Model the fold of this input.
Amino acid sequence: MRFRGGYDILLQGRPEGLVRPMPEPATLYLPLRSPRFTFTEICVRHGQDVKAGDPLARDRRNHGVPLLAPRSGRVNLESAENHTVLEQAVKLQQPSDPARKQMSHIERESGAAVMRQRQLLALGAWQFFYDAHTGALPDPTGSPQAIIVCTLGLEPFVTRGDVQLRSRLLNFTRGLEHLQSLLEYQPIFLAIPDIRSDFADIIRNRIRGYASVKILAVPLTYPYDNFRILARRLGLKRSNGPVWALRTEGILAVDRALTLTKPCLVRIVSIGGAGVVPATHIKVMPGYPLKMIKEKYVFEPVARIINGGILTGETLGEQTLGLDAECRGLTVLPEQEGREFLGFTRPGWGRSAYAPCFLSSLRQRFRERFSTGMRGEGRPCISCNYCEDVCPAGIAPHLIHKYLYRGLIDGAERARVDLCVECGLCSFVCPSKIDLRRQFFEVKQLIHDEKQAICEEKARLEAVREAGK
Amino acid sequence: MKSVLRLFEKARPVFQKGGRLAVLKPIYEALENFLFAPSTATTTAPHVRDPLDLKRFMSMVILALIPCIVAAFYFFGLRLAAMIAVSYMAGGTVEVLFAVIRKEDINEGFLVTGMLFPLIMPPTVPLWMVAVGVAFGVFVGKELFGGTGRNLFNPALVGRCFLALAYPETMSAGWLEPSSELVGRFFKYVDASSVDAISSATPLALAKQGEMCSLSHLLLGSVPGSAGETSAIAIILGGVFLLVTRVANWRTVVGILGSFTFLAGILHHAQSARFGPASWHVFAGGLLFGAFFMATDPVTSPTSNAGKWLYGAIIGSTTVLIRNFTGYVEGVTFAILLGNIVAPVLDEMVFTVRFWRLKSEE
Ligand code: SF4
Ligand code: SF4
Done:
């Protein structure tokens, strides 16, 4: 299968290729929730002193993935709701080594690969692994049919892979080698923008001998960096077992964990969008106070701060105080201002639109300063087919929408709503301003819950029958 | 502008739920949002939206119609203005009425229908017929199905079809002879009473009797016919604009014109005495207007791209068949309505194949 659909939104505020340092914070606010994880099991006491690298909390539902203390300091569990606060944070020369402590517990017979995977989990590198099909955290005791490594970050504006890689190429290739050691014969697919670039040559030279790294060229169009789309592009079927997927930061974390046996504590995060000066990358750690970032970079008085990219990210509310453990970038959007008089009659010299209905299509492609405005009223679907044209999953969003409008959930199921990767492009282009992505997201959830309920019901009946015997 | 906006703000409570004029909320909202772009903001991802909205989308069609409208004024005179006004008023009344009854927003789609309808009418048709036709079209063709976006048939064509069946003489007998003066009829009001200007037949009717008018007349539009359908150049100009802005899908247009030319070419080749050349037929009658402005209506055509090809082919070939083998001289209206009927079936077919192929993918 080839890549389908896709579209690049040209939005002002693309982060530059620099990484700027940030001042060391005195207090860290670690949210107990991130997109995938909810750290329910707190491992520290209020007022306890912890060292950098100590686990503060774990997520039991996700194989006990730990929330590591990025700095040494004193735990405060009471000052902020849903956060673990680390006060008097200091950077120690010698972070603690939770891996070594844990290693002794692990039975030797579980195999070298599984042991390494455990080590990754303990050192906070496992959280960078994704199941390509479901997006969930893979089982650290399992083994995949293949691994996809993607160096691209195409959604506006998440951290750019090339920025993370700068001057860390050695670490990257070493990380790939480590990854190899988790596998027996399964292939690693490396998705990069250009197979003829210098970067590709270096990678090819360095990993010579590790024959199972295959390089795949990915066009720079959103959302071809999506793991599920990549898995489909590579023909990796779900029925053949899990596919693991990592991004650049994941490989770097693997390298750090397995070469130095050190936890991965700081990371590079982008800050971009129309409300940021200058749009750039910053070096921070989870829990970094959002206030300090805002003060330094956000000049827009009313702005929406988004955790992640503009198309799939979540709005960060007032109650969130620090960066979460999975943050891939911050995007800042000015809120919608005033109302345009006879807006639809404007020639639109400065509009960056999907369909060339504005004068701007006579210009070269340029970046528009988008705001949070809906830019139109909700209307019934007019079947313009734009959504189908941009959909990377090859499904027909308008068809699913029409089924859902009539309440036909099984119709939506038949129309393969399950293939939707929630990239958000359909909602973006829809001239009728239909919230397609959200509808699909919700109905998928519904179908999932229903299936779960049926399974549970079956299990219950089974148990009753067993007991009856 | 600020003061106008403030006026709207002040008037809002009257139209809100419980207000004195709450029934008229759709009208108030339509007017407000017509003048001022709405201020709603996104709530969930994606946090930004494309600048294109339905108002702009529909105004593109109106813009694309301008060459046709100018040509119609030039050849048939100021009466067109009256027809457009009547069409908007009658159709608008139905639309607003239904919006009020359904408590929904007034939809922009009607702006296009109201403009398209007079352009496919004979220029001398009585104004009351314009009103009846457009009201019927909007009511039966659109509102009964649930409004814009849910209709099966192109409302303008339903209106025209209705008139053609109900009043066949008026709709096909008296055609206005186009102006032959250099300044055209920009400043003249000509109606059915000015007998000297009435000709008996359109080029297609004449062609049936073996009399072909010259191609240059067809291109320019100086032939009798429906108000906006005669000038091929003007239609192509506007039509290409629509295709470039992607408001109309090129597949439909290419499908129709391609299949039409192909079939008409074969017929001409087989019996050149009986059937006119394809290059002439393409420009005659309402084919171009239908292909560019009527069949491309996104709502009533198939949504999938493959479906659009099939749809175009069906319309194009049906038109050839009706034109050449039936008593009707013009077949586009019926062909497109037929296409509208099969459109959902075509989509169904395309999607069935698609989902079957997707099955093997993940
Ligand atoms: S959100 Fe889903 S349906 Fe919409 S374009 Fe993306 S993959 Fe397709
Ligand atoms: S983009 Fe919106 S209006 Fe167009 S077909 Fe898709 S859902 Fe319908």
